[in-house]
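Thread title: Can someone regenerate the structure for this chain?

I was given the following input by a collaborator and told the matching structure tokens would be attached. They weren't. Posting the sequence so someone can regenerate them.
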Amino acid sequence: MGVHPAQIPDLLGLQGDAVDNIPGVKGIGSKTALALLQVFPNLEALYADLGLLETLPLRNVKTLRQKLEAGQEVAFLSKRLATIALDAPVVYAPETLRYQGAEAAAVTPLFAELGFRRLAQRIARWQS
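Best answer:
Regenerated them for you:
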């Protein structure tokens, strides 16, 4: 039982993600979130038809509905936090991303401080 890649933001909107500091709906765990996304394609569809929950074979449907209603704002905020922005205005010139070689003047003192003697000997080979 899993979700489609496009449903990952919806999944995180429901269950949250402690590592990325995404809160999710309080009281909704991964099993419940997965079960809901097997029925509803996304958060919008879920919240558009919460009445359908009553017909699903889930435990504690009434409290589940209360949790979802109370956490609606957090669910949509969490989904937004978990969504990668593809429309970010990134301007760059590809030639500026080309590797220019190691900056020996910056790296050599750091490697000496950290004790990277062998690696420091290779810096000359990084220049190309």
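The chain has a mean pLDDT of 90.
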